[in-house]
């Protein structure tokens, strides 16, 4: 399983076997059962998660009490509530496993120690954050620009396996509409 | 003016005078007149901008032809269209000066050279992207969660000088409503 993480790091920087072993020692492996929460609103988000297998989602409870999903993370994606994680503030989010999931986790103190011990990991994380930020800029544009239906079509085109894999009510929650409406759109787009 | 940039870098990493001079040599200074575009939709966004003085905004044209502002950058903030800048793709955005503005700019090739020459700048940019990503995650939550009026109140509370400084029609464009509606909300919140 640690090969997945090593391969991901090597997409961005060169590391040897010994370095990877040392880097890996900063992380803990965690198994998360389907629907288990690794973060609950009101708690500090202690960890930054790297998904080895499975899928996490981040959501918050709206005033009406419904779950609004804002983010998914599948294999090789990172997830945390950054503001809570960095500033140790109570989180406004939940992080929950969509499937049985295996993650690597690191706390913010250890991440800082890791970066001190291996400055080359600054480059790795710089790429991770840079790409995440670029994607979120487009996301913000779509939230302003696209109708909910167009957003779904766009999402479906970009990430077809993702839309097949994730339960429909969670896709609906991410896109901000009801499962019934999603089902209607899917029927229309197939006809 | 270059002191602003040096001070900003020193918030995150230590550099000496000689190092800063070398780092600074990767950048070009540019004066941008109020309402001048440094990026036009359809062109590749060649530069990453650091604002020394003034204010930039990023916007796109909606299908109805109105300008939807998605981002502002004032002193010490960075701005670019990341996807266009990194992958050299045509941009879907405009970047325009809100006031007479002075920026440092760097192209993506030079930024990569800078990072090779000064690996410690990886740490600086890692912080820049990390913070930008954290802010955009909260932004996405607000876009889902808050009514337009609540979003304005929140924004006004967090950035009061900003709301005073930026022309009202641009604040309205950022928040996604008409200047008339903004004026109404402001009256209500003062009464």
From TrEMBL, chains A, B:
SUPFAM superfamilies: cAMP-binding domain-like. It comes from the Bacteria. Gene3D superfamilies: Jelly Rolls. Signal peptide: none annotated. This is Cyclic nucleotide-binding protein.
